[in-house]
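Q: Convert this sequence to C-alpha cells.
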Amino acid sequence: MKTLTLLFSVVGTLTMGWQTTRAQSQVVDSLEKVLSIAAPDSIKIRTINKLIYYYYSDNNAERLLELSKQGLALVDKVEDKQDIGTTYLNHALATEVVGEYTQSLEYNGKALSVFKSLNDSASISVILNNMGIGYNQLGDYSMAVYYLLRA
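A:
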C-alpha cells in the first residue's frame, strides 16, 4: 500500500510539473505574439520585461540578452520610471548571466538611481545584493561586502 501511495505521489508531482511547464510555454508564446505587434511604447517594454522573467527561469541566456537589449533601445521612449528601472535591472541581470559583470554593475547602478528616486526599498535591496554578487565575481571582496551589508 505504501508503494502504491508513493507511486501516485510521484506521478502526481510529475504531472503537475509538466502542466506548469506547458502553462508557462503558453504564456511565453502569448507574450511573444504581443511583442511582435506592439508599438514601441510602454506596452512593448512591459512585455519585454515579462518575457525576461520567463526566459531567465528557463535559463535561456541568449534570448534573455537579446530581449534586454531590445528593452534598452526603447527606454528613452517611455516615461514610467518603474518601467525604466526594471529595464535597467533586467539588462543587468542578463549581462550577469553571460558573465559580463562590469556591464551588469553599470546597469545595476542605473537601476539603483531610478528606484531610489521612487523610494522602492524592495528593489533597492535586490539591486544592492546584485551589486555585491557582481563585485564578488570580479574578486573585489571589499566592495562586495560593502554592497551586501547594505542590501
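Residues 16 and 22 are 10 Å apart (CA to CA).
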